[in-house]
Design goal:
Aspartate Aminotransferase, domain 1; 39% helix; binds pyridoxal-5'-phosphate; alpha/beta
Length: 400
């Protein structure tokens, strides 16, 4: 397994952390690019993304085209999808022949895992930071070994060593987050993926948060990688990608058969009969917009804002910042012990913060006490994090 999902092997290029103490400002023109409810502080871009107005308009124009002449639209669809896929591959430094549009990360996990032959007794390794539906896809196919990663593990080396220590001769596949959802840290580092490959383990990377947040989202070199464009890539909902290394492509089978099955990957995976393809076709507009705004500037701004918010929250007694990866647009803190220990308690706290404070954040459950995740995006302003930091102590008392 020496081939990768990328044509070349550039080092992982993450944006540099802004100088400590730098006060973030507003991204010029950023908020006006979205139609978000201005009464709400949207600090949870990582869960569902948000679609900028130019991308909404591009999708609306495509929908109008479908309704004006459905025959013309659907008969030219394969070519148009190929053009859109090729543009996206260029943005992500990906091999266009190894890339397919899919609906979401969860679908990517299922497609990838179906393409790995598993013998009786072989196991899939996951971590307890993994996203629930992705871990469920693994558990449907083979016994899983769940690696417990203490959220306070200090760095990528500690994460790598903990994962490798759990590999046994039965481990056939590892499903690892690129950027973890609850703890916002890099798990599938290129070095960990390479060391798993040396041990004969097939790697499946959940890059749900990577496109648009990382400069080089396919840099892990995994056998299979899937990622959402509808989170940080400014694409319409239902827009994601599956990247497959050459040696695995012939085993990819669409979850539902279509007329394109005979064409193999990627066309067979992309054909969903008479479905709505306008999100995929509008997706290049999202990545074009990030480039036009200056991708490095966007990333720096977003990570500066998230760091600023985390610094404010860290001043609240009982909140503990978790180790983070520099340059990411999401930061997490552990809540006081006993709060958000279960999914129900976490959901209740998140919904109360939304209803009472009009602030959207992710609250994640964890045994002993959950955590809070905040995001930075070009529509956010520093005062939104200050508002959260001012109101959260009282809210935590209510939920204690
Ligand atoms: C790490 C991770 N993987 C997978 C998903 C699921 O994405 P989707 O809803 O597109 O399947 C999410 C969603 O937040 C996520 O954070």
């Amino acid at each position: 397994m020496t081939e990768t999902t990328r044509p070349d092997h550039r080092p992982d290029r993450r944006p540099a952390e802004p100088p400590a103490g730098e006060r973030p400002g507003e991204f010029p023109g950023g908020p006006a690019l979205f139609r978000l409810d201005p009464r709400v502080a949207h600090l949870n871009h990582g869960s569902f993304g948000a679609v900028p107005v130019p991308v909404q308009e591009a999708q609306a124009a495509l929908r109008a085209e479908v309704h004006a002449d459905p025959d013309a639209f659907f008969t030219t669809l394969p070519d148009r999808l190929e053009q859109a896929r090729t543009k996206i591959a260029a943005h992500l430094a990906a091999d266009p022949d190894g890339l397919a549009f899919i609906a979401n990360a969860t679908e990517g996990a299922n497609l990838a895992l179906d393409a790995v032959p598993l013998a009786d007794g072989e196991e899939i390794l996951v971590t307890d930071h993994g996203y629930g539906t992705v871990t469920a896809a693994a558990a449907r196919r083979a016994p899983v070994t769940t690696v417990a990663l203490d959220p306070a593990l200090p760095d990528e080396d500690a994460v790598r060593e903990t994962v490798l220590a759990a590999v046994t001769p039965r481990t056939r596949v590892a499903v690892l987050d690129h950027v973890s959802s609850p703890t916002a840290r890099i798990i599938a580092s290129p070095r960990l993926i390479a060391e798993l490959r040396e041990r004969g383990v097939t790697t499946v990377v959940d890059g749900a948060h990577a496109p648009g947040m990382l400069a080089d989202p396919l840099a892990t070199g995994a056998d299979f990688w899937f990622g959402n464009l509808h989170k940080w890539g400014y694409a319409p909902s239902g827009t994601a990608l599956l990247a497959v290394a050459p040696q695995h492509r012939h085993r990819i089978r669409a979850l539902v058969p279509s007329w394109e099955d005979g064409h193999g990957f990627p066309r067979s995976v992309e054909n969903r009969a008479t479905a709505d393809y306008t999100g995929w076709l509008a997706a290049p507009e999202g990545l074009d917009l990030i480039e036009a705004l200056d991708a490095a500037k966007v990333r720096a701004h977003n990570s500066t804002l998230a760091a600023h918010g985390a610094a404010l929250l860290a001043e609240i007694p009982g909140l503990t910042p978790l180790p983070h990866t520099d340059g990411l647009a999401m930061r997490t803190l552990r809540l006081p012990p006993g709060i958000a220990q279960t999914p129900d308690a976490a959901r209740a706290l998140r919904e109360e913060i939304a209803a009472r404070l009009r602030i959207r954040v992710l609250i994640w459950p964890w045994p002993g006490g959950g955590g809070i995740r905040i995001c930075g995006q070009i529509y956010n302003r520093p005062e939104e994090y200050a508002r959260l930091a001012a109101a959260l102590p009282d809210q935590l008392l209510r939920n204690a």
